[in-house]
Every structure is written in structure tokens, then in C-alpha cells.
Design brief:
60s Ribosomal Protein L30, Chain: A; alpha+beta; 31% strand; 137 residues; single chain
């Protein structure tokens, strides 16, 4: 079984948790940018997958396509689109991954601890997006 999903938005990395204190009580929360991105992901994922969340071990292939910088030569632009030049700038691919897998929790699977195999990559693209393939193990 394989599930193919696409999140049509510029990938956003999971930000570091924020902390607030009220008296002796401390709470953590997502930074606003991460929270908004996860909400957008969840909305798009729910439109593409309406079945019950998976309950078995799964593998996931994720490709993150970032926008190409405006100040890029035509030659470099073409090389970036073909995947010859890959993004070696921040944010890290694992921070993109964390934001997406957190958003899929409760929609695609019950908990991200069900993920037992991972393949992830960053690319440049004309259309920023995240392509996800989920397969059962």
C-alpha cells in the first residue's frame, strides 16, 4: 500500500519551542510560523486523505522543493531545476521533516513513532512544495 501526498506551499522548518511562565507553571508552544505551516499542512492533508489513520509500521519518502532565489543566473537556475545544484543552505532537511511529520499525526497515522524507515531530500523547484510517499512495512 502506498499513499502519495503533496503539500503545495514553501516548506517551513520546525522552529525551536518557545516557553512561557505563569507563576511556577511553564508551558511550551510552537513559534507562530511553525504553527501556521502545520495548520496549512493539516488542511491540505485532510483534503487528500480521508481514511482512518494507519496503525501499522510505515516508511516515508519526503522531497522538499524550495523556491529558487531571485538573484540566480539563467545557467544556475537551470542546474537547480535539474537537481544538479541542490540547496545546501539552512534550514536543515530534518527540521523540514519534523514539521511535516508532526502535521501528519492524527490524520495519516496515529503517532510518528510508527515511522520506521525514512528517506528525505531537499531540491529547488519552480513550484515550492513537499512531496510525500507513505508505504506500509
Amino acid at each position: 500500500m502506498q499513499i502519495d501526498l503533496v503539500i503545495n506551499a514553501e516548506p517551513v522548518a520546525q522552529g525551536r519551542p518557545r516557553f512561557s511562565r505563569r507563576g511556577s507553571y511553564v508551558s511550551t508552544y510552537d513559534p507562530p510560523k511553525s504553527k501556521q505551516y502545520k495548520a496549512l499542512c493539516q488542511q491540505q492533508l485532510q483534503q487528500q486523505y480521508s481514511k482512518k489513520p494507519l496503525e501499522m509500521p510505515i516508511g516515508i519518502d519526503v522531497k522538499f522543493y524550495r523556491s529558487i532565489q531571485k538573484a540566480t543566473s539563467k545557467k544556475d537556475r537551470e542546474l537547480k531545476l535539474r537537481g544538479v545544484i541542490r540547496p545546501v543552505v539552512k534550514p536543515d532537511v530534518d527540521n523540514f521533516y519534523k514539521a511535516v511529520t508532526d502535521a501528519m499525526t492524527g490524520i495519516i497515522y496515529h503517532d510518528d513513532n510508527q515511522i520506521v524507515e525514512v528517506n528525505m531530500a531537499k531540491y529547488y523547484g519552480n513550484k515550492p512544495r513537499t512531496e510525500i510517499k507513505i508505504y506500509t512495512i
